[in-house]
Amino acid sequence: MTTFDCVIVGTGPAGLGAAFHLTDQNPDINILMIDKAKVSTGGLRNDCKMNFTYPVGFPADTWNRQQAERFLPTVESYLSPDIMERHKLKVYKRRAERLNVKLLDIRQAHLGTDGGAKLIRKLTAEMKSRGVTFALEENVLNIDAEKRIMKTNIRELEYKNAIVAPGRSGFRFLQHIMASNNIEFLDNMVDIGIRVETRIEHYSIVKDYYDPKFYFPGGVRTFCTNSGAAFVVREKYNGLHNEPYYSVNGHAFSTAHESNGLVNFALLKTVTLTKPLASGQEYAEMLGKQAMLMGGGRPLMQRVGDFRLGKRSKAESFNDDLFDFEPTLKQCTPGDISLSMPARILRAIWKSMKFLDTIVPGVLHPGTIMYYPEIKLYANRPKFMDEHFQAKQHLYLIGDGAGTSRGITAAWASGMRAVEGILTGE
Question: Which terminus of the chain faces fewer neighbouring Cβ atoms within 10 Å, N or C?
Answer without folding.
Answer: N
